[in-house]
């Protein structure tokens, strides 16, 4: 019987860092806290990740890799609307897996310029993929014709919802839209007025098949 692969110390550090950052926020966790929680010396941790920026950069690389897979994969036979629906479901799930990053994104971009640069690169790539999906909406008869600038503005609004979803939940706590699936519903609220009758039909089909919350299959 093949033995399970041993988890490397570098990966264990990232796992513990994500857990502590999620629980306490980036500002309240030092590398010494992470090392202490793991039961290793600070020198051992420092050998793998010399600074907090190194840890957060490694986590962001992990995040980008995971979401690149989601953006790049497509369910066989899925329409553009079904594909987009599955994608934003995964994005909402992703928010909670790495909630510290979304809650502290302003702090991260201000404190770590190298990570801020990568975030901007990622936004450009995600923007391109999303607009391509919207263009497929139009070519499939699911969405009314829109100018490129209108599609870019629509994508921008959706990107703001995704990027600041958890932050607005904490700041605007008097609002009721906090259950899982609310981000997905909010995004569709923005898109639906632009859909044709055929697009609404395809949207309703996607909801019937997948619901609003992500479940791995």
UniProtKB/TrEMBL annotation:
Pfam families: TetR, TetR_N. Gene3D superfamilies: Tetracycline Repressor, domain 2. PROSITE patterns: HTH_TETR_2 (PS50977). InterPro entries: Homeodomain-like_sf (IPR009057), HTH_TetR (IPR001647), TetR (IPR025722). It comes from the Bacteria. The lineage of its organism: Bacteria, Pseudomonadati, Bacteroidota, Cytophagia, Cytophagales. GO terms for molecular function: DNA binding. This is AcrR family transcriptional regulator. The keyword DNA-binding applies. Residues 7-67 form the HTH tetR-type domain. The keyword DNA-binding applies. Keywords: DNA-binding. Residues 30-49 bind DNA.
